[in-house]
Amino acid sequence: MKTALVTGTTAGLGEAMARRLAKLGYRLVITGRRRERLDRLAETLRSAFGCEVFALCFDVRDREACDAAWNSLPASFKDIDLLVNNAGLAAGADPFDESSLDDFERMIDTNVKGLLYMSKLVVPRMVERRKGHVVNLSSIAGIEVYPNGSVYCATKHAVNAITKGMRIDLLKYGIKVSSISPGMVETEFSVVRYHGDENKAKAVYRGLQPLCADDIADALEFIVTRPDHVMINDIQINPKQQANTYISERE
What we know:
The chain is of the alpha/beta class. It has helices at 12-23, 35-49, 63-72, 101-129, 150-170, 189-193, 198-204, 213-224; strands at 3-6, 27-32, 53-57, 82-85, 132-137, 175-182, 234-237. Strand 4 (82-85), helix 4 (101-129) and strand 5 (132-137) form a beta-alpha-beta unit. The model has no long low-confidence stretch (mean pLDDT 96).
């Protein structure tokens, strides 16, 4: 039985991907910052899919917390076959000159440093075993920059660069490295970006049908169910009404 570690599973994409992997027969290590939601998901996965689940409640921005969480895992759970670096967020949507350094740090610490912290904990054992798969959640913001999103876009450009670099460096160990780059997906993402303003969050998707979390879980399923000799580098996935980061057709 394969073991997957998925970060940021207490809502949205992470929760949907954890459910999909459980359905595919993985046993799971799930992480998140909200204990009640994390424990509820763990129980749901056990009862619905009969899978083994180990829940770790911590913030990926905190390097010491990442280390402590990893060290708390039973040895039998540490041979991770699939790492899904999903934890990420956007904070703020103001022009650069009006934006907040606190928001910048929150995005950089979560989207870039958190991914690096978790990868540096999990990947060495993949190297020892000469097998494994890392899937990083990127964004079309890592491909094209859009107005009022410079630093968020920068973090996702960094994710893309790290993904490509990891793919090169880990090739000799037989480790696959993939990414998923979604366009507009309706989750808690925009609520977090607008600091809890639900009206602004809803306006992001007004007049079009965005992707849903299960669409991204579909992409993950496709990536991880390919034959061993096949590596999917990236899946870019947009709603039908979105051409790129800044052009969409609204009704």
